[in-house]
UniProtKB/TrEMBL annotation:
<keyword id="KW-0067">ATP-binding</keyword>
<keyword id="KW-0811">Translocation</keyword>
<dbReference type="InterPro" id="IPR014018">
    <property type="entry name" value="SecA_motor_DEAD"/>
</dbReference>
<feature type="domain" description="SecA family profile">
    <location>
        <begin position="1"/>
        <end position="150"/>
    </location>
</feature>
<comment type="similarity">
    <text>Belongs to the SecA family.</text>
</comment>
<dbReference type="InterPro" id="IPR020937">
    <property type="entry name" value="SecA_CS"/>
</dbReference>
<protein>
    <recommendedName>
        <fullName>SecA family profile domain-containing protein</fullName>
    </recommendedName>
</protein>
<dbReference type="GO" id="GO:0006605">
    <property type="term" value="P:protein targeting"/>
</dbReference>
<keyword id="KW-0472">Membrane</keyword>
<dbReference type="InterPro" id="IPR027417">
    <property type="entry name" value="P-loop_NTPase"/>
</dbReference>
<dbReference type="InterPro" id="IPR000185">
    <property type="entry name" value="SecA"/>
</dbReference>
<keyword id="KW-0813">Transport</keyword>
<dbReference type="Pfam" id="PF21090">
    <property type="entry name" value="P-loop_SecA"/>
</dbReference>
<dbReference type="GO" id="GO:0006886">
    <property type="term" value="P:intracellular protein transport"/>
</dbReference>
<keyword id="KW-0653">Protein transport</keyword>
<dbReference type="GO" id="GO:0071806">
    <property type="term" value="P:protein transmembrane transport"/>
</dbReference>
<dbReference type="GO" id="GO:0005524">
    <property type="term" value="F:ATP binding"/>
</dbReference>
Amino acid sequence: MIRKEESDVVFRATNGKWRAVVVEIARMHKTGRPVLVGTTSVEQSDSLSQQLQEAGIPHEVLNAKPENVEREAEIVAQSGRLGAVTIATNMAGRGTDIILGGNAEFMARLKLREMLMPRVVKPAEGLFVSVKKPPSKKTWKVWLVLFFGI
């Protein structure tokens, strides 16, 4: 696997960091690249989601909130699609694979179940397969905030 290691970016305040993250997400989203943003809390994921909404960037949020649990498998299955933006807390996702291009097989099964048994079937977990050919282009970037206390 080839991964481009970019320089870490350091900010004095949290607000500046998240504004820069939104700008970077918008840049990558315009190119059609799937973006996965990791946050350390539900509050951070909600705040970033609000900023992305204000910027007009479509996205999915994957965190520990009860209202997201039912769609968790679907969100993960589709987070590798062209232009997808997914915000995930470190407590969500539970180690499932993200398939570039999305998981068409999973979505077809889900749609079939919805048509045959509406309101009964929930997305099944563990239907993901590993990518046979690893993608040739990956990017890793760390965004840090330094707090200057007294």
